[in-house]
Design a protein that fits this description.
Elements (H helix, E strand, L loop, with lengths): L2 E5 L2 E4 L4 E8 L6 E8 L5 E7 L6 E3 L7 E6 L4 E6 L4 H4 L1 E9 L6 H9 L5 E2 L3 E6 L1
Length: 133
């Protein structure tokens, strides 16, 4: 049984930093492109970025570029989302990780296209981030 479990969310002050984690189990983690999404209250799902299977290429969406960083540790089946300079209105959301089987695709554009998909192989349950002003 595949599970993706996000953690690291919470209440943080504006301007601070947060690192979210997504722990994967039940799959060969290194065969999957991992992506991060968020959904703010009353808004639709937003793709924020992703990382290829080997971890040497990331894509960060323009609205969060410069503040968000994605990394992974294939030995520990973990993917991370580092968020810096947190902004109350923009960053308050539930953050989700997703996994898509893609052992041979890993370019910047491959990851970008992955984020545009409606469906993904596996989803986590989300972790809530609330940024106070």
């Amino acid at each position: 049984q595949v599970q993706l479990v996000e953690s690291g969310g919470g209440l943080v002050q504006a301007g601070g930093s947060l690192r979210l984690s997504c722990a994967a189990s039940g799959l060969v983690f290194s065969n999957y492109t991992m992506t991060w999404f968020r959904q703010a209250p009353g808004k639709g799902r937003e793709f924020v970025g992703g990382i290829n299977w080997i971890g040497d290429t990331t894509y960060i969406a323009d609205p969060v570029k410069g503040r968000f960083t994605i990394s992974r540790d294939n030995a520990k089946n973990l993917v991370f989302l580092q968020i810096d300079s947190l902004k109350p209105a923009e960053d308050t959301a539930v953050y989700y990780c997703a996994a898509d089987w893609a052992p041979s695709s890993g370019t910047w554009d491959d990851i970008r296209k992955m984020g545009l998909k409606e469906d993904h192989d596996y989803w986590g349950q989300g972790t809530r981030v609330t940024v106070s002003s």
